[in-house]
Amino acid sequence: xxxxIMPQFVYTGGTFFKEYAVLTEDDRIEEVGPAxxxxxxxxxxxxxxxxxxxxxxxxxxxxxxxxxxxxxxxACDRPFLEWRDKALxxxxxxxxxxxxxxxxxxxxxxxxxxxxxxxCDFFYLHHFGVESDEIIIQAAKDVGIRLVIARTMYDxxxxxxxxxxxxxxxVDNVRAIQKKYNGKDDMVRIIPAPHSLHAASPEMIQxxxxxxxxxxxxxHIHIAExxxxxxxxxxxxxxxTHLEILDSLGVxxxxxxxxxxxxxxxxxxxxxxxxxxxxxxxxxxNMFLADGITDLPAMLKNHVTxxxxxxxxCSNNRNSVFEEMRMAALLQKANTCDAMCVNxxxxxSMGTENGGRIxxxxxxxxxxxxxxxxxxxxxxxxxxxxxxxxxxxxxxNIVYSMQPSAIRKVMVNGKLTVNYGKNLTVTEEEVLxxxxxxxxxxxxx
Length: 445
Ligand SMILES: [Zn+2]
Known about the structure:
The chain is α/β, with parallel strands linked by helices. The chain folds into 2 domains: 2-57 and 374-412, Roll (Urease, subunit C, domain 1); 59-358, Metal-dependent hydrolases (TIM Barrel, Alpha-Beta Barrel). The protein has helices at 35-41, 80-92, 97-113, 130-143, 167-181, 202-215, 227-236, 242-248, 266-274, 283-288, 296-301, 321-336, 344-351, 353-358, 394-400, 428-444; strands spanning 2-12, 15-18, 20-25, 28-34, 46-57, 59-64, 116-123, 146-153, 188-194, 219-223, 256-260, 278-281, 305-308, 374-378, 407-412, 415-419, 422-423. The strands form 3 sheets. Strands 1, 2, 3, 4, 5, 14, 15, 16 and 17 form a 9-stranded mixed sheet that branches. It has a 4-stranded parallel sheet with strand order 6-7-8-9. The structure holds zinc ion (ZN). Zinc ion (ZN) binds next to loops.
């Protein structure tokens, strides 16, 4: 079905246009241009007025852990290992199939309400083998969000047993689920994700890289999040730092997306850029957990592709990529005392098209051939005013002042999922009831 979306302004090619429209055919963008011209050209298209709304691409959350939404507010303001033990490790083994499902529905619904149309979920609750992955795929389908599972490969046995698999099991499971979804389902994609240098052995990391090459995908891995993790790895790997270790394993190339990258030397950032590697940057999480500050100007200078992630909702504790745009810019300016080290256009691209590039999906831009994933933002919200005739405030307002109340509509893959600020695919009351019930069950044990 052809649909002609006619908002107040359309953001395309780095600029806002008035009296523009977007023609979609089912799940894809067919044309972007002057509304009058498109209306004449396609008289049979269904008119869809998005009055007083600015049409921008849906945001891409490049790093999340959906089950952690259920652990929000637990063990806050503690050192990293204490937080990990009291929040993640204390609860992970208790999760039933239903808890995994409800946690994912909760996380995905909340982030969609905040304008996330694609999420890359770094998922490691593997108590039920690939059935765990199938459960969060079902949740994503029920919510209507586009899901990339960074399917975790984890063989450090000091963690909750549900995380742990042997290299052979992890490889078989990633392959099995990739075979079922990749290239067959537009809304789901599976990529390998050896957890980190502390939770995945060198063999596991190399197996993850091999799988990425084999399936033509990227792979994700947590790198240099905490300073002590780099020091620990140095002891185990003959004085090498995190990216140097990955290099010695032969896995630093364009398939690599490092998550965090806080404690990297200049030479490691240069290597990441030269090999066309990527960064999943999670500024709020880095602040929340007192990790430190990733050197974003150096990443930009070395042409590292940077996407933005909320990380799990128990280390943020919000679930919005617009929030991460603001945090990324403000944190970097404060850190460098340079107001121009990163700008609102940079961070907006990170939260949209760069996420699409990192995930190799046609998302994050309003252009012909891209997916019909949109967010409609009202200018009739106080947080979005003022707007002068030049429209120069629109993008800075979206990045720096917008509140979630300004997000009125969300469309994913050509389907409306949020309207008048309410989720259409799930009922908020039902999601909240399920969250309350699950928490009672998790705490009763
Ligand atoms: Zn993470």
